[in-house]
């Protein structure tokens, strides 16, 4: 369905429809990467001086991600992968999430939106560095890698079309936590690094289930996700390996690493959701339900990490 061309100034209802289309292009309903900022603030001990820089950095992150997913939609629209993955043969998918496919936005509008949001996001990141209490060189480098890789995810170098999709999904999330913590404290502890990796694994471990569902369409356009390359059995082994790796990181950090001894116990509910996700997706083949479990696991993991940091802060002050 295509939107009718306006013969004059847009009516309020038309403006709302256009704004809604752009919001769906930006995937504003998927906010899980943005949880990196409250996690970083908790790692900084909830310092008031870190709040404004993190808010600026967080708003910039929303815009950077909006630009990245807009470019991803343009590329998916051009190569036909979105039409294959969101077409009438996949009725469970929400076609409305793809305003290019519905005709609500044109390619030119989506590309313009991508550059404007990515550029504005980059500007806010620079402002965050300017007002932050700390700005070590490594945070600038990590932020630059996050920015470049997000814009180039499906555009320009198209790193997700060159076998780097899964690396980006975990690396971008971990990078946001590391940069946010560095801007707030000037450094990252060993336990902070563990939390950054656990946070990054969250988007990866719900993304791989979407990739499993989209494997045929991705393979057809030459997008070499693990699901498209390894086939069903290899992909199941990959997902199971990621789940085991996440649980092992929690156990190792609590037993041998920098986490408190009770960290593993605190993480039991979140890890239980993760195991349930594995059973639902790999064991029963219910990919959409497994993706939903992945969102819950990521959010519960982040909430648990913030609670753990608060407990450690209170304990240190008592």
UniProtKB/TrEMBL annotation:
Localization: Membrane
Principal location: membrane
Domain of life, source organism: Bacteria
Transmembrane segments: 50-71, 167-185, 191-212
One Pfam family from the record: UbiA
InterPro entries referenced in this protein's UniProt entry, alphabetically: UbiA_prenyltransferase (IPR000537), UbiA_sf (IPR044878)
Keywords, ordered alphabetically: Membrane, Transmembrane, Transmembrane helix
Membrane-related topology note: Multi-pass membrane protein
Name of this protein: 1,4-dihydroxy-2-naphthoate octaprenyltransferase
Organism encoding this protein: Actinokineospora diospyrosa
């Amino acid at each position: 369905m295509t939107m009718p061309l306006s013969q004059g100034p847009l009516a309020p209802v038309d403006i709302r429809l256009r704004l809604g289309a752009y919001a769906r292009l930006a995937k504003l309903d998927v906010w899980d990467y943005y949880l990196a900022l409250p996690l970083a603030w908790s790692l900084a001990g909830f310092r008031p001086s870190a709040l404004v820089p993190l808010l600026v950095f967080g708003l910039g992150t929303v815009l950077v991600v909006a630009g990245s997913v807009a470019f991803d939609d343009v590329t998916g629209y051009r190569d036909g992968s979105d039409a294959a993955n969101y077409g009438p043969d996949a009725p469970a998918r929400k076609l409305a999430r793809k305003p290019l496919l519905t005709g609500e936005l044109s390619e030119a509008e989506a590309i313009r939106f991508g550059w404007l949001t990515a550029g504005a996001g980059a500007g806010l990141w620079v402002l965050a560095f300017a007002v932050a209490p700390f700005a070590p060189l490594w945070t600038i480098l990590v932020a630059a890698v996050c920015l470049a890789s997000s814009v180039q995810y499906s555009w320009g170098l198209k790193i997700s079309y060159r076998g780097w999709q899964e690396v980006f999904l975990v690396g971008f999330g971990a990078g946001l936590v590391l940069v946010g913590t560095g801007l707030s404290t000037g450094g990252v502890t060993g336990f902070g690094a563990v939390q950054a990796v656990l946070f990054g694994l969250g988007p990866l471990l719900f993304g791989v289930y979407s990739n499993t569902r989209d494997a045929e369409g991705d393979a057809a356009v030459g997008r070499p996700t693990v699901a498209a390359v390894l086939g069903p059995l290899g992909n199941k082994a990959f997902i199971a390996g990621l789940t085991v790796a996440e649980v092992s990181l929690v156990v190792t950090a609590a037993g041998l690493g920098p986490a408190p001894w009770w960290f593993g116990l605190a993480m039991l509910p979140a890890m239980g959701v993760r195991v349930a996700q594995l059973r639902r997706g790999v064991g029963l083949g219910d990919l959409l339900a497994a993706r939903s479990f992945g969102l819950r696991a990521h959010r519960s993991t982040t909430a648990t990490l913030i609670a753990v940091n608060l407990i450690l802060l209170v304990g240190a002050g008592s």
